[in-house]
Amino acid sequence: MHHRITAVLVAGLIAATGTIVAVSPAEAAAKRYANCAALNKVYKHGVGLKGAKDKVRGKTKPVTTFTRNNAVYKANKSRDRDKDGIACEKR
């Protein structure tokens, strides 16, 4: 069933854009959350790209305990207010 969903998504992308785009099963299944409160229920300290570092101001320490998951981050990129590669980060 999972492969069928991925195939349908890829076929839709090809039909819509005329371009072949590779979509991994993890990216196809990544959930977009309605807001940071909903995301933080699942990912307590936020979710970010692998290799991302929290941008901080002043003497605050950066959050390092966020979950590293590229697919989930990309689905919720709009929740990354400071554009540091981590969405909904919190202590």
Automatic annotation (TrEMBL):
<feature type="signal peptide">
    <location>
        <begin position="1"/>
        <end position="22"/>
    </location>
</feature>
<keyword id="KW-0732">Signal</keyword>
<protein>
    <submittedName>
        <fullName>Excalibur calcium-binding domain-containing protein</fullName>
    </submittedName>
</protein>
<dbReference type="InterPro" id="IPR008613">
    <property type="entry name" value="Excalibur_Ca-bd_domain"/>
</dbReference>
<feature type="domain" description="Excalibur calcium-binding">
    <location>
        <begin position="32"/>
        <end position="89"/>
    </location>
</feature>
<dbReference type="Pfam" id="PF05901">
    <property type="entry name" value="Excalibur"/>
</dbReference>
